[in-house]
Amino acid sequence: MPLRVFIRKARGILQTFRIRTSDIKLDTDDYLMNAYLFPVFSLLCRPGHRWQINFQGDTSVKLVIENRLYRIVFALLVS
After folding, report:
1. What are phi and psi of 14, to 5 degrees?
2. Which of 4, 7, 44, 67 shows the smallest number of beta carbons within 10 Å?
């Protein structure tokens, strides 16, 4: 299998994954950087995807990723 075909199929399979929920809490340990990121993160926040900047030193990432078998098979056949 040529490398180009492999890359195209791998990209097709990666595009089948969906992020259902995300909960990201970030503290950069730099008050000024946190202040700059605060409005950006508030714009990125939407239902099911919560992005927060905090000033307490808590950093965590929670992602729920899903995929279906039919999407993977379809991606392999089409691409």
Report:
1. -65, -30
2. 4
Kindly state the average pLDDT of the residues 53-79: 92
Q: Could you please report the per-residue DSSP string of the chain?
A: --HHHHHHHHHHHHTT-EEEEEEEEE--S-HHHHHHHHHHHHHH-BTTEEEEE-SSS--EEEEEEE--HHHHHHHHHH-
Residue 59 CB contacts under 8 Å (≥ 6 apart), including other chains: 25, 26, 27
Range of the domain at 30: 3-78
pLDDT at 79: 74
Q: Which pTM was predicted? A: 0.68
For residue 7, what pLDDT is reported?
Answer: 93
In this predicted structure, the answer to whether residue 22 has a pLDDT above a threshold of 90 is yes
